[in-house]
Amino acid sequence: MLLRVEDLHKRYGKEEVLKGVSFSLDKGETKVIIGPSGTGKSTLLRCINRLTEPDRGHVWLEEVEITSPKVNINRIRAQIGFVFQDFNLFTHLTALDNVRLGLMRVKGMRKKEATERAMAELARVGLADKAHAYPAELSGGQQQRVSIARALAMDPKLILFDEPTSALDPELIGEVLAVMEDLAKSGMTMLVVTHEMGFARTVADEIIFMEKGVIVEQGPPEQLFQCPKHPRTAEFLRRITDLYGGTR
Amino acid sequence: MTLEHWLRVWSYLPQLLQGLSVNLALLGGLLGVGFVLGVVIALLEVYGPTVLRVFAASYAWVFRSIPEILLLLLMWFGPAQFGLSISPFTAAVLALGLRSSAYQAEIFRGALQAIPMGQTLAARALGLSRLQAIRYILLPQAFRLSLAGWGNEFAVVLKDTTLAYAIGVVEVMRQARYIGSRDFPLTLPAYVLVAILFLVVTYAGLFVIGNMEKRLRIPGLEARR
Amino acid sequence: MNLIFSWSWLPKLGQGLGLTLELTGLSMALGAVLGLILAVLRVYGRGPLYPAYLLASGYVHLFRGTPLLVQLMTIYFALPTVGVRFSPLGAGILALTLNTAAYQAEYFRGAIQSVRAGQMQAALALGLSRLQAIRYVVLPQALRLVIPPWSNELIYMVKGSAVVYLIGVLELMGQAKNIAARTFRNFEVYIVVALFYLALIFLLTVILRVVERRTRIPGLGAAGRV
Predict the structure, then answer these.
(1) CATH code for the domain of B151
(2) B185 to chain C: which residues are within 8 Å by CB?
(3) What is the pLDDT of residues B4-16, one digit of tens each?
(4) Which long-range contacts link A23-26 to residues 24+ away (Cβ below 8 Å)?
(5) Would you say residue B133 lies in a domain?
């Protein structure tokens, strides 16, 4: 088991956004989290790498308890990739520098090796020719792909995707989903929060449906889409397929 | 220097306050001059013919490039060349007032230009004349948008009033020096007291302006950054 | 009106100009270092370094809320009464530095806070420590964003340096006062000095604009999407 999440709770002011969430991820698995907006899906991801500190609960990455105060959180984060909805590429750095920064400053690689590795990752997402462009000069889809390259370059054990295509124009969503699909097929362990049902259906090993801070149902795609156990799951899936369409 | 000195200096407070009142009078006068001139120049800059726009830009450049203290000296020695004699206080009001008008013009101009084009278009579409549009639609919004900049200008200019010391105005700095020269060990406490007085007046003023801003605020009416 | 000018004034005024530039340059540089430290403390120090955060905030409020002249006079006239003595030049540099540091601290703070939160988050998510994130991601952007207000401050300081003539420093104004006292041509001398300042600040403005253009990065700044 690569990732284990146990009884996570998080409260913002009066509102409890995570009400005891538990699940696990094995190596090579891709799990997709779906659910209505504001149900704590993003908060859940941020609690896993402690960008947001959970109020209660534990997270284990392999044998290491991430939520323990004694752990060196920076080292843990270097092993978990995070792809943001808003890309969050470093505005003042070129695509190449964005991918190189983590290699050089966190992993301590020398410039030459870091550059080779960074260029390889950029090529992997199809953007080797944009290495010297600044984020503002790239389209949304290109920025998100660079952001994925940035995460991949760190050789993470697991990558968290926080609604990676929600901020993109429709024509650009496909290129990002294609990269993510390749990644899943190549054996990367991924936890993805998304509304893209087509992607969930074809790529996920398991789908987790969250609503109001709890996991309502989880299971393989065929099971959830064809015979969901919970009425709310069925209702949500119906609504979402109407809005976003089925497969892409 | 002992505690006794720090306590004794409070007996000079009336004298310092009298000096401060001169600073405040100066402040009021120069802000008034600056406001009237500033608004006029800003309007000329935004709506006037190119000639006036160039003039307004040069005016701003001149008064923002010359050190305040030099402006004071020029205004003090200048009138004599023309056979006029003015009091140091008047010279200070004029010199600092002209300088403030350049900065206030910039603030007001920025505010006018921050108002979206659509406002003017809608006003004209209704049938309002150019002057009416300026008066009923643009000026009220521009004044609200300028409040933050004016708060800043107030804080800056309040401090500049102490420069009038250099041309002989008997304001709070000069009073502090008098105290120091009459009662040597009170020099430091006197200056510290002056510093405290300025802090109090500055924050009181900013608080008042901040309050005004809050009460006049209209949701949605904010400078487009 | 009876105006008399003289070319003989120029050498001394030139000397004064040189000292003005040195004073401004030195106090801006020292003030930048101090101001940056104060700004970082003010933005990031609230939790871990609370006493330092309080000191930094107090300092900024004190030196922005009181006039430069009061600060200068306190250092030069009042401190000697407790045994701390400075030369006119020393007092001038100290007062200018302490003063500009407070203003620069606020400009740096504004610039740091303009850098979007997502940048820090992405840096932390990569595994960079807080300090590394500040150094490699936040500050490089903040330093570019701060150029316009910093340029303004530089110009303010050029003008602010003029007040040190009151304690006898022979920069541009000081030299002017000497010449005026000798020749009684107050108005004329000060007109010439005004022209000096006009030219100097015009030049500085042009140079600063070029610097801003050269260091611009597409997407970073008021024109870009922030």
Answers:
(1) 1.10.3720.10
(2) 81
(3) 888 888 888 999 9
(4) A23/A208, A23/A215, A23/A218, A25/A1, A25/A158, A25/A189, A25/A191, A26/A1, A26/A2, A26/A189
(5) yes
